[in-house]
Amino acid sequence: MRSSQAFYLGIAVGGVVVFLYNSLRKKSQYKIYGDVSELIGNTPILRINSLSEETGCEVLAKMEVYEPGGSAKDRVALGIIEDYEKRGLLKKGDVIFEGTSGSTGISLAMLARSRGYEAHICVPDDTSTNKIRLLESLGANVEKVRPASIIDKNHYVNKARSLAEQICNDQDDPRNAVFADQFENEVNWKVHYQTTGPEIYRQCDGSLDAFVTGAGTGGTIAGVGRYLKQKVPNVRIVLADPQGSGLYNSVKYGVMYDSVEKEGSRKRHQVDTVVEGIGLNRRTKNFEAGAMYIDDAFRITDKEAVEMARHLVSKDGLFVGSSSAVNCAAAKKLAEQLGPGHRIVTVICDSGARHLNKFWKITSEDTSGP
Ligand SMILES: Cc1ncc(COP(=O)(O)O)c(C=O)c1O
Description:
Elements: H1 3-26, E1 45-47, H2 49-55, E2 58-63, H3 73-86, E3 95-99, H4 103-115, E4 118-124, H5 129-137, E5 141-145, H6 156-169, E6 177-179, H7 187-203, E7 210-213, H8 219-231, E8 236-242, H9 247-253, H10 285-291, E9 296-300, H11 302-316, H12 322-338, E10 343-348, H13 359-365
Helix pairs in contact: 3-4, 3-7, 7-8, 8-10, 11-12, 11-13
Bound molecules: pyridoxal-5'-phosphate.
């Protein structure tokens, strides 16, 4: 080979090496996410060391607090919005209505902003000012409604539905409106069946003995429970229910009842507990979709939830919201019941930061618990 040929060959080989290097570098291990909805799902799983060591079981938590909107409701809000989009019912400027006192409104407001929709959220007027300010900061219209029974047309869920209908029926309003309806809209449990359940199954390499979580709409327990039962037939699906909720008795004895329902003893709230987001005194379509897969239930008192929240901070550095504290308290009880050597998965639903002016106020101030 002549020296000039060797020279050009060297240049060509060098060029190929540089090209390969650059193309490999472009396919970096770090994905650049396109918008906030791409950050939803694929949350990590964490071993809760204190509970694992105390019980001899492996207690794992699906960290839904890592969602961009701070809770698993991001999955549900995205599923509901995409369903309406596929059906051609949402275009820029249209309005999404929901009746919620919590996380779903925050997730809907976040996604509505990122996709050019309006979010109109009806909340009970005793909703914490923190949450109302958060919703408003996310650009939602927030409507405060007096607390009422679910059969009352002024209940915040019914109010959101009727406001959506009003826009749809108004010939002069160019906007369309949809009602998210997280309690009855079965997109909710299906999203958990399609995403949260398979993620937990994969993250556990298909090996787990129980899944325990609370029910607000019932979407999580129904979707995850249904998926896991199909993949791991012996897995136990267990409900973690706060005091004041009728679901515990409904699962254990087939009767929707709680002692606070006794005549004259019911307080102002639908479910009398300091815990937010879980507990219910009716069976929703989303709960029904998974009810047949629920094997057992634990009732967790407010005192037990507060004690667990303190425990998780002091032993594991985990600052969790009230429903997560209920979940972990039930996971511990279940671990004690099953005995050492089992793997139990629960959910950290949201952060304690969202509960600073209620649950964590009690948790920090009152050392004897509520
Ligand atoms: C903080 C929090 N945890 C748990 C849940 C319960 O989830 P699900 O509605 O899927 O039963 C909710 C529901 O609103 C929630 O807001």
